[in-house]
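[Automated response] Your request has been received and processed.

Submitted sequence:
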Amino acid sequence: MKSKQISLGYALLPILILVILLSYNVIVFGDDALSGSNQFILLLGGAVAAIVGFKWKISYEVMLKKVAENLQSVTGALLILLFVGALAGTWLVSGIIPAMIYYGLQILHPSIFLPACIIICAIISLATGSSWTTSATVGIALIGIGKVLGIPVGMVAGAVISGAYFGDKLSPLSDTTNLAPAMAGGELFSHIRYMTLTTVPSIIVTLIVFFIISFTQTTAGTADIDSLMLAIKDKFTINFSLFLVPAVVVFLIVRKAPPLVALLIGTLLGGLFALIFQKDILIEVAKASGFSFEVAYKGIMNAITVATEVKTTNPLLNDLFSSGGMEGMLGTIWLIMCAMVFGGIMDAIGALARISNALLSLATSTFQLFASTVASCLAINLTASDQYLSLVIPGKMFAEAYKKRGLAPENLSRTLEDSGTVTSVLIPWNTCGAYQSGVLGVGVGEYFIYAIFNWLSPFMTLLYAAFKIKIAARKDAIAQ
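Generated structure:
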């Protein structure tokens, strides 16, 4: 086949140009690079790959067909992303997410302030699917409380970031948690279940270390969170009945119901509970003056489909109580589609196969394959300065290599998250590092050593690979 004739140098050329263009693009646009320019750069990378393909006599029709196959392969993931946005919207207006935050804040106590920071941020990030929002809201409040208590801000920031990224990794509402299995060819909830194997031990070690650190710290005041809780209580009807909805969704996931079914039921139940408990919120979201069936319908549909904000008396909560709905997921969907174009052309011209064969020849063991994946994710985070790209590029590049070794896609998606998602915040010039440092007012150098969960995660995934702990084989490989 002609696709096998491509040389390693030509196979790597589109990736090299892509990384250079993405690095410059992030320098120019910063955080705004995710708004669309990075997506176009991926298309430019695909164009470079197509030019290489033409040189090696690969037809336009072959490349277009492979792009179509790639896009078809992520149809389920794209639909899941849309339903994740819908679920986040109804869980906000129904008071489910505010209730999680309300009860999460109650566990805060000065004597265990640092571990409590981890737990609170983990709960909120798990509920919202956003480490950035968690840091920008409750994280800021915790930094302020830590200053009052006389605790070094680097410690507090490290605890906040550790908890926020733990929740982000395991939340089905998180874009990176959806992106990783999409790139690896896996399934969302299988990815989450498999990821707990390394993520839970990492957060346990982190909590133990922070408990030990807490014994060496003396607090100088009392953590007052009454204003936050009062603002939530004033705006929403908060009770334990709201937790029936996430309990049903968790039950469906455990029973291995199709993800789209679980998310659809969770979305509809969220809308129903909004109708029962949060009529005033629906009136506000619908921008109406009184309650009626039409107003309720409009409020729920707005929460499902478009950006929704619920204003409280506390400005720290206003950014937290917002959801993009299905519309808010379009940026990630756009990114995935452009990545599929780049990956499809690279696959059609034989570049991914050539690179995979080269990597497999160097990686003579399963551990070396995992180590190569970790190194690639770190390299992309350092050069392209973006956590999404640290999942997209290595994900497409290594998927075939894992498949050839008979490894389930969950191995790759977990490694991508353990080494790509969480380490981005440890790099000052990465979008995540710059964002967290700016929002929390704490330099990366100050919180680096205390962001234990983030730098421990890559070592944990390598430890599992080295000792062959829970390394799942592909189902078709088992059948053979």
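Summary generated for your ticket: The beta strands are 308-309, 322-323. The first strand starts at residue 308 and ends at 309.
If you did not submit this request, please reply to this message.
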